[in-house]
Amino acid sequence: MRFSIGAAVLGAVWAGLILPDRAGAAELMAAPADIAKFAPSSPYLVTEPLPAKNVAKAAIAADNQETEDANPEYSPLVVACDAVAADPDDATRPEGVAGVALTALDVARAVEACGRAHDRFAEHPRTAYNYGRAEMAQGGFDPAISAFAVAADAGHPLAALTLAELYSGGVLPDRSTADAVPYYETAAEAGFVQAQMVLGRLFSDGAPGVEPDPAASARWFRAAAASGEPEAAFEMGWAFENGIGVPQDPITAARWYTRAQAAGHTGAINNLGWLYANGTGVPRDEERAVALYREAANAGIAAAMSNLGWALENGIGTEQNVSEAAQWYVQAAGLGETQAMLNLGWLYLTGHDVAADPAAALEWFKQAEAGGRSEALSYIGEVYETDPSLRNPAEAARYYIRALAAGDAWPARRAAADWDGEMALEMQNALASAGVYAGPFDGAIGESTQAAMAALLAQSSQGS
User: Fold this and answer.
1) What gap in Å lies between CA 285 and CA 283, rounded to an integer?
2) Could you give the CA distance from residue 271 to residue 269 in angstroms, rounded to a whole number?
């Protein structure tokens, strides 16, 4: 800014100046002849152009404008969207952006800001994902799905995981679990343990449109286990114990179970107990097995309850205590453990250190059979054959036939003398109804009857 100086001020300035002595002034003046040597020999002409404007600054300004237009990471629109809608779990969010939990979104601001950014940069993965979050939060299902698809197809892992869960969850009628697999793989490859676990289970069990692939299952479980997921370590133990997708190796199985156990996986505690009980992959140690069973049983693992009951019933690794065994069987059976149902039914049928109760035995056997245990069929038949109060040879024969058809050879292995005449006759009738017997109906288990049972058993092994 320029300032005007008043006359009074100027006068004071001039008054304060110390002027040189006039005589001295004459001495300081150059001689006329000397003046000439300082004069230009020719008129001063401007022969060079004036400096141009700052080209570097102009280029930077142009670059900034181009960057803002072409690179969404520099766009105020994207910055504004990130500020109000970035996911705290999104590893692609810019440094310094904390993110906003879905439940804390200012939905209206997020939809507006991210909608503008998405309109301008339709293919930008993070912006598409953020816009999808915002639309989903306000119930805009269709635009959310479209935005998630854009982001997922560009490799955004959280968008891929979100879309995979929507597809596999049956939210979209034209999408299925099979359609979700590539998106789960995108998320899994980015290190999302959740996606790795889903893929491990999908390839282990299969699904509509997804064929079981044990090797792929083991690969994804291993990846999740490497991130410290206890369930994945347990699954790796199971895989190595049974040779599913990896070579069968009980020693490695024990190591994986131990790793899962250290992380607090109670199922691994039970399975490790089983290895110690049988000396598989580890030194046989029945007392340690019982301790592990009890630990897992107290944590609510039904299989461990059943295993502990078995050890107590038979005095393996601990003092025999059938009464306590029955209590553990009841707890396990109440949780749906079918082996405990079978064991409990056998205790009640035989009256082994508990009060015999054939009716209770029959009920437990039937529950086990309903739970998928085909060996319960022979037990049911035995109750109907042997208990005086429940005896029904025709019903017993019917269950024995079902047992043979399911692959249980126990009825066929019985000695001929073990069948009374009435029971043998009912077996002949039942075998004839099954289309495998054409011999005499003489109430004696002879060669033709045994051959018919063997034929029925053979049909079961052939899957007929």
Assistant:
1) 6
2) 6
Structure tokens at 404: 């043979």
Query: What is the residue whose two structure tokens read 């996911």?
Result: 87
Asked whether the beta carbons of 238 and 217 are under 8 A apart, the reply is no
- Cβ-contact 443, 428 below 8 angstroms: yes
Report the distance separating Cα 430 and Cα 286, nearest Å: 45
DSSP structural state of residue 100: -
pLDDT at 213 over 60: yes
Q: What's the CATH fold of domain 285-373? A: 1.25.40
Helix (H, G, I), strand (E, B) or coil at 207: strand
Residue with tokens 């065994």: 325
287-346 pLDDT, tens per residue? 999 999 999 999 999 999 999 999 999 999 999 999 999 999 999 999 999 999 999 999
List beta partners, residue 210: 207
In the chain, which residues fall in CATH 1.25.40.10?
285-373
Contact 346, 375 (CB under 8 A): no
Angle at 436 between CA 435 and CA 442, to 5 degrees: 105
pTM of this structure: 0.75
Which one-letter DSSP state was computed for residue 72?
G
Residues 243-266 have a mean pLDDT of 97
Closest CA to 135 of 126, 127, 144: 144
Residues of the chain by 3-state class (helix, strand, coil), percent to 5 = 65, 0, 35
